[in-house]
Amino acid sequence: MQTTYTIRYSENQSTTGNRSCKSCISRETTAWSNVTSLPNYDFTSISSPTKTTVRRRLKVIPSAFISVIIKLRAVINYIIPPVSLVTNSLSIAVFFRMRHRIQRDLVLVFIAVSLVDTFALAVMFRKMVHRISRAADLTRYNIGCQVIHWLTGSCQVCSSCLVLLYTFERFVAVRYPLKRAVICSGRRVRMAVLWIFVFAFISQIYNLILLEVKITACIVPRRNQKMIFGYLTVYLQYVIGIILPYCCIAFLNAMIVYHMIKYRRKRSSLQASNMSSEEKTQRSMTVMLFTASTYSLVMMTPLMAARAMDMTLSGASRNVTIFRLIAEDMISPWNYCGNFFFYVIGGRQFRHELFNMLRFRQTSKCKAADIMQHTIIVVGLCMLVYKD
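Given the sequence above, the corresponding C-alpha cells read:
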C-alpha cells in the first residue's frame, strides 16, 4: 500500500494535510484530523478538514445594566449637592463653636476642608442649575466654563492635601505627643494651609487657558491641546494631587493604629486605668479624624484604580469606561459630603457641640468669656463715674 501526502494552502493561510490511499477510501477520521479540526459529519462527500481559529468574545456589560447605572447617576447628581451644602455648613458652624476647646489652627484646617469640599462639587451644582434654568448656567460662557472647572479641580486637590495635613498632625500627636506643640505649631499649620491653596490653584490654572465653549459644550477644541490637557489632568490633578496624598494617608493611618494599640498595651501593663481630660480629648479627636480620613480614602480608591487603568491601557474598553463612570460620578462625590457623619460618629466632643448648637445653647467657655467681657465693661464704667 502506497501512501502519499499533499500539502494545500487555504485562503486563511492555514496549512492542512490530505491523506489519500490508492487501494481504498478511508471512512474514518485520522488522528491528525481529530487534533486540528472538528469531525466532519458530511457523508455525501469526503472533504479535507481545515484548521479554524476560534476567537473568544469578551463579556460585555448588558445595555439594561448600563441604563440602570445612568438613571442612578442622575439621581445621585440630584442628591449629593444639597447634602454637601448642608453637611459642610454644619461642620463649619460646629468647628467655629469649638474654637475655644481645640487648637485654633486645627479649626482653620477643618473649616478649610469643609469649604473646599463644597466647592469641589461645583460641576454638579452647575448641572442642577442647568436643569432649573439654562440661562443661569455659567458654562454657556467662556469665563464661567473655565472658572467652574478650575475651581472644581483646585478644590479637589486642596481637599486631599488638607486631609493629609490633619492626618499627619494626628500621627505626630500619637507618636510624639510631647513634640506635637513644636512640630505642629500654629505658624507651621497656617503656612501649610497657605501653601496647599497656592499649589492647588496654580497647578490647575491650565483649565483657564485650554477650555473653551463651542456651541453649547465646554470642551478643549483643538486636537493637540486635547492631548496636553489630558496629560496635565492625569499628572497634576490625579497623580500629584490625589493619588500621592491618599497613599501617604493610608500609610499614616496604619501607623496611627499601630501606635495606638502599642500605647494601650503599655498602659495595661502599667495598670494605668485612669486617663486625664487632655488625654480623653486627644483620643476623641484622633478617633474622629481617623474615621474621616479612612472614609475619604475608601471613597477615592475606585477613582484612583480607574485612573490607573486608563494610564496603563492603550484603549479603554467598554467595561473600563463603565467602571470609570461609576467611580467618578457615583462613588467619589460622596467623599465631599460624608465627613460630617463620621465627625458625628467618631467625635464625642463634636457630637456634644452639635447637639448644643441645635438646641441653641452656648458653650460654657463662651458664657465665661461673655461674663468676663461684661464684667470688664461694668468695672470700667464704674471707674469712669467715680473719677467724674
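DSSP finds 14 helices and four strands in the chain. Try to locate this feature in the C-alpha cell string yourself.
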